[in-house]
Amino acid sequence: QVHLVESGGGLVQPGDSLRLSCAASGFAFSNFYMSWVRQRPGRGMEWVSTIYPDSSNEGYADSVKGRFTIARDNAKNTLYLQMNSLQPEDTAVYYCQKDGGAGERGQGTQVTVSS
User: Fold this and answer.
1) Are 47 and 114 spatial neighbours (Cβ–Cβ below 8 Å)?
2) pLDDT tens digits, residue range 4-25?
3) pLDDT of residue 100
4) Pairing with 28, which of 9, 12, 97, 99 sits 20 to 30 Å away (CA)?
5) Torsion sign over Cα 89, 94, 96, 102
């Protein structure tokens, strides 16, 4: 059974940084593309970033390009999202997602950016 657990969210000020983590279990993590998606207040789910199974390539939404970095450690079955220069519009619940199959997600972690 796929199990994804996000952590690392919190309340920060504009310009601050956060690093999100996602612990994965129940599937062959190193074989799958993995993504971060987010849901901002009052909006639908929004794609943030995707990383290849072997970390050879990654992609970012224009809204986060140059500020966020996705990474993974296949030995630890863990996905990361380093978020720098956070802005109020980055306030959202962030989910890690196993791409392909049922597209399972974790329970999410809240990120709030406010002065």
Assistant:
1) no
2) 999 999 999 999 999 999 999 9
3) 84
4) 9
5) negative
